[in-house]
Amino acid sequence: EAERHRSLEKAARQLAKNVNCYVQYTQNVKDMENIIKDHTNGSSHKNGNDPYKHFKDKTEQLVLAPLTSLQGMFTAPQKLIQKRYDKLLDYCCHLERSSSFSSSSSTSSPASDTPPGPAKRDYEAINALLVEELQWFNKAAYTILTNCVPEVQHQTEEQRDWLLAEYPLNRLYQLKRKCNGCQEQDLSLLEGELVALLEDTDPSGSSSRWLVHTGG
User: Fold this and answer.
1) pLDDT at residue 182 above 80?
2) Which of 79, 60, 75, 57 is nearest to 16 (CA)?
3) What is the 3-state secondary structure (H, E, C) of the chain?
4) Which of 28, 121, 180, 193 is deepest in the core (most CB within 10 A)?
């Protein structure tokens, strides 16, 4: 559970970093778009329904805020894990000293008669606390993490209608199975969704990746 705890903390930290970078990249794209509009139209187009602002606000609310809170919650358990390790070392040292004393002693009393002392009690108390609560914490942290990942959105009827109106039928394709994006700029799409083919090769000329429009 301690190892799983460390993996969850690393995942939360990395996800927060990646999402922050992504939000910054989209801001750069928006800034460049405004600069282009300034040069072509003389002024940037202002619209109350700003898609980027909506995306940024939702991302901060549903992803970054929970991740930031979650990262702060890892501190106390990590300190307790380290304290347990320190107490375990103290306990082991106590056993070694007791064993050395027993072997060099001329009395017949067995080593087990030596009182366990505070080192053993402290270790067992912290260990019992972690055994009971760390598993619960890890489950809760995992749930928060999975809730923070951007779930694939279903294509709306409005988006399908727009594609049908905008593109000829010979440029439209329907997915036979779910597609999970695994590379940069890949789309995650669901079975049955409609896409318009814009380019049937990538910039390097490979036909294994297509440039498509989803209507969104």
Assistant:
1) no
2) 60
3) CHHHHHHHHHHHHHHHHHHHHHHHHHHHHHHHHHHHHHHHHCCCCCCCCCHHHHHHHHHHHHHHHHHHHHHHHCHHHHHHHHHHHHHHHHHHHHHHHHHHHHHHCCCCCCHHHCCCHHHHHHHHHHHHHHHHHHHHHHHHHHHHHHHHCCCCCCCCHHHHHHHHHHCCHHHEEECCCCECCCCCCCCCECCCCEEEEEECCCCCCCCCCCEEECCC
4) 193
